[in-house]
Amino acid sequence: MSNAPRNTGQGSAKDAPVRFEEALKKLETIVEAMESSEMPLDTLLAKYEEGAKLVQVCQSRLAEAELKIQRLEQTSAGELKLERMSPEASED
């Protein structure tokens, strides 16, 4: 049995998660290809599945960004400060 880290479904087959911009660009490419050409059903379904996974990645990244924005606080000097979140707080 391998001790290598497992893919959590938040990216491609690589260990590093896909960045939001990369996922969005791939998703746009998939949508354009699906709209502009006649694909065999098997290919169409595979593209749809890949697109659905990319949508999940984008939604996850946006949710993380929203949490960070919500945690921004304005200090008494008028500066914005990012409040650190505990891992337990982000699972709610």
The geometry reads as rod-shaped
> Which runs of at least 5 residues are low in confidence (pLDDT < 50)?
1-14
| Structural class computed from helices and strand pairing | mainly alpha
- Give me the Rg, rounded: 18 Å
Describe this structure in words.
This protein is mainly alpha-helical and 92 residues long. It has a single domain, classed as Helix Hairpins, CATH 1.10.287. The protein has 3 helices and 2 strands. It has a two-stranded antiparallel sheet with strand order 1-2. The longest helix has 30 residues, at 41-70. It is rod-shaped and about 60 Å long.
Essential attributes:
92 residues; mainly alpha; Helix Hairpins; two-stranded antiparallel sheet; 2 strands; 7% strand; rod-shaped
Layout: helices, strands, pairs:
Layout: H1 20-36, H2 41-70, E1 72-74, E2 80-82, H3 87-90
How is this structure best summarized?
The chain is mainly alpha-helical and 92 residues long. It has helices spanning 20-36, 41-70, 87-90, and strands spanning 72-74, 80-82.
